[in-house]
Amino acid sequence: MTQKIGVKYQGFPSDEELAKIPGVPDAERIKKGPVAFIECAQEIPCNPCEEACPYGAIQVGKPITNLPKLDPKKCVGCGNCIAACPGLAIFVVNGARDKAEISFPYEYYPLPKRGDIVDCVDRSGKVVTTGKVLRVVRAPNYDHTAVITVKVDQEYIDIVRSIKRLGGPEHE
Amino acid sequence: MKTTEIAIIGAGPAGLSCAVEAAKAGAKVTLLDENLKPGGQLFKQIHKFFGSREHQAGTRGFRIGEQLLKETEELGVEVLLNAAVYGIYENKTLAYVKDGKDHALRAERIVIAAGASENALAFPGCTLPGVMGAGAAQTMINVHRVLPGKKILMVGSGNVGLIVSYQLMQAGAEVKALIEAAPQIGGYGVHAAKIRRAGVPIYVSTTIKEALGTEAVEGVVIHSLDEKWQPIPGTERTLDVDTICLAVGLSPLTELAWMAGCEFTFIPPLGGHVPIHDENMETTLPGIYVAGDITGVEEASSAMEEGRLAGVASAESLGYYDEDTAKRLKDEIWQRLNSLRTGPFGEGRFKAKIKQLQARRQLA
Q1: Which CATH superfamily does the domain covering B120-246 fall into?
Q2: How far is it, in rounded angstroms, from Cα B158 to Cα B136?
Q3: How far is CA B81 from the centre of its chain?
Q4: Candidate CATH numbers 3.10.620.30, 3.40.50.620, 3.50.50.60, 3.90.226.10; the one for domain B2-117+250-363
């Protein structure tokens, strides 16, 4: 059977679905500096991201099932929304430096340490490259959701979304 | 005989929320639960809840449970634990077993918030040790801190299957795969995306052929299904697992409502036979209310709102609220409930709930 594409079949949004998310930052914006990348493609009743943003850059409004809409001009890429999203579906990408920086939520132990070289995975969990851990932030208001930032080659800026679990089992 | 004003059966999200609202209004409330600890399923929900920020979305479920419990204590709610209610008799008298002894409790109002139980699935080998409900596995890891197995197959892609898969990995297990008999993933895409990023394959149109093993699960054979849900020969695959978790839906725990004589209606999207109730959560029996999964399987956030509704309405019926105050409170709750029942995942439940309320009006 041929694999159907899309969040309903594969469990993660396709490129086409990602492009339709309101306010997804374009390549030009990503090159300017850190910006949120919201991968919330289904209308579910949820809005903590809206209040988490200190810059008013995320709007859900009413009804609560609206997809969150990012204003990439207002967003400074602070990453407060990353740990606030119950779906762990918000990332921050930064294409302003020679290497791409990707921040993502992470809720497994053990945590990597700053400077570690780690296997970086795409949305399907496939290891696509290695990266260097730049930061591991565990703020009290994140309530145990760590926010990790890794540095990878620019070509992976739209691809890498997490790291392979440390001490986890091997997946084929 | 022991007496109370409002007896609430079940101290889960619906029962606790109901107790808080009714006690806040001034009613004397007795909350009964068969478990040793209150909280129902709330204390094993270690993930951050969805929903509206003003109603604790983004907060981990067990913290919401702790908060509700604290409120019941502050409000002086009587909580009877290890108290299994086994009957509702005339004059709103409950019979329950506590500490090996029978007791009776006469109440002026009864709220049944008994919850739901996990569905089973029959397949060769389904009685082997290692086959369990996903909710059972979740209780083991998040309440008792015992890993049920190391290599898991999850069956069912609703939010329970997706969330428990994630939590099993957080607890240190490996989830070999998640399979779904339907051609699409049932739960939220964001929950699915979490486990995909962690390397778990999700196979849709796939089911269990058999569990392998003699003393316990030693493996599983899965196969693909065609458009008519028939197995496709030659698609069998064997996975090396020691645990099979079943997340194939829930059924409302309706026995007490049947026994009391409440009238029922059959609504498959809500889990089958559900007690008919009105906008106040009152059943066809005056003074007997229902709230939470017993009224139709949803999730904790709507169970809490239904509990609040039953709490306000039952307190109002005892004269603790005037009509205007009660109406204002109930309208607010209904607004929140309706907002939880919108969007592609909520619409079906919204329509099913309308049908349930219509069933009440037809009887009237």
Answers
A1: FAD/NAD(P)-binding domain (3.50.50.60)
A2: 16
A3: 19
A4: 3.50.50.60
Tell me how far CA of residue A92 lies from CA of A34, A54, B55, B193, B244, in angstroms. 6, 15, 26, 17, 36
Q: Compare all CA atoms of chain A with the CA of B206 and give the residue at the minimum distance.
A: A1
CB pairs under 8 A between A and B: 140
The yes/no answer to whether this complex scores an ipTM above 0.90 is: yes
Q: Where are the domains of chain B?
A: 2-117+250-363, 120-246
Can you give the residue ranges of every domain in chain A? Answer: 7-163
In chain B, residues with a C-beta closer than 8 Å to the C-beta of A89 are 190, 193
Nearest residue in A to B196, CA atom: A124
Q: Is the dihedral of CA B183, B187, B190, B195 positive or negative?
A: negative
Chain B residues bordering chain A (beta-carbon distance below 8 Å)? 47-53, 57-60, 169-170, 174, 183-185, 188-200, 202, 204-205, 224, 339-346
**In contact, B265 and B359? CB cutoff 8 Å:** yes
Tell me the per-residue pLDDT of B215-264, one tens digit each, with 9 for 90 and over: 999 999 999 999 999 999 999 999 999 999 999 999 999 999 999 999 99
CB contacts of B205 in chain A (<8 Å) are 1
Q: Is the pTM of this model over 0.90?
A: yes
